[in-house]
Amino acid sequence: MRQLNYIKVFIFLSVVTVVTVGLYYVAADWLDQPYFRFLIWNLFLGWIPFVFSYIAYGLSYVRWRAASWLAVACALMWLLFFPNSSYIVTDLVHLTARSSRYYVGSGLDYRYWYDLIVVLMFVWTGLLLGFLSMYQLQEVIYRKIGSVASWVFVLAGCALGSYGVLLGRVYRLNSWDALTNRDTLINLMVESVSRPSLAFCLFFGIFILTIYATLYYLINTRSAIEK
Fold first, then answer.
1. Which pTM was predicted?
2. Long-range contacts of 34-39 (CB under 8 A, 24+ apart)
């Protein structure tokens, strides 16, 4: 498993985020379409799991017993907020909700394509944040426990991440509800046990896993070629 320079990764993600947010403001000011401002907040939430994984990764190199417990705590917080990084994918629904604004005569208005590009930039940035946050923690587990355990972690993360997206999009729960509103969380988790929910988690989990495996393969194939 290739080790990445996470300082460079952090800088890269920061630049991509600035470009993404800048693109939104260009479209919003130039075309007078501020509708997707909420995506900035969603992207901020997508940064939270990366920050926790970044801290956990750094703590994994500290030779101090308490550092290990802090790393585990950061990993648990990562899991709580990890669904936010891929939740942005479901924001594509807002293009459908605004579809009546996009049709002019028999074709699509140019504003549709600008909005589509803006939303896709946020989606891509969120997926990158999710991938790299999971990659950091997989690298820690790979180094501490081994390859099999690291991939068990990835599979579990994708499964729980997809379930978190379900709770967020369908049942309108937030990550912090697990800390502040546990009774509602438990009731909705019980309510969410159904065939449609299982299908959603299965499809979305495979979607996240496929993207992760693709980027993982590209990174590590390049590493093998360089050797």
1. 0.90
2. 35/94, 35/98, 35/115, 36/94, 36/115, 36/118, 36/119, 36/122, 39/88, 39/91, 39/118, 39/119, 39/122
Structure tokens given for 209 = 């896993």
CA distance 158 to 152: 10
The predicted structure's pLDDT at residue 109? 78
Cβ burial 128-155 (10 Å sphere, 16+ → b, else e) = bbbbbbbbbbbbbbbeeeeeeebeebbe
Task: Please list the residues that pair with 108 across neighbouring strands.
Answer: 103
Beta strands in the chain (DSSP E): 103-104, 107-108
**Rounded Cα distance, 160 and 106, in Å:** 43
Angle between helices 182-191 and 147-169 (to 10 degrees): 90
Averaged pLDDT, 197-211 = 96
Tell me the pLDDT tens digit for each residue of 16-36. 999 999 999 988 877 777 788
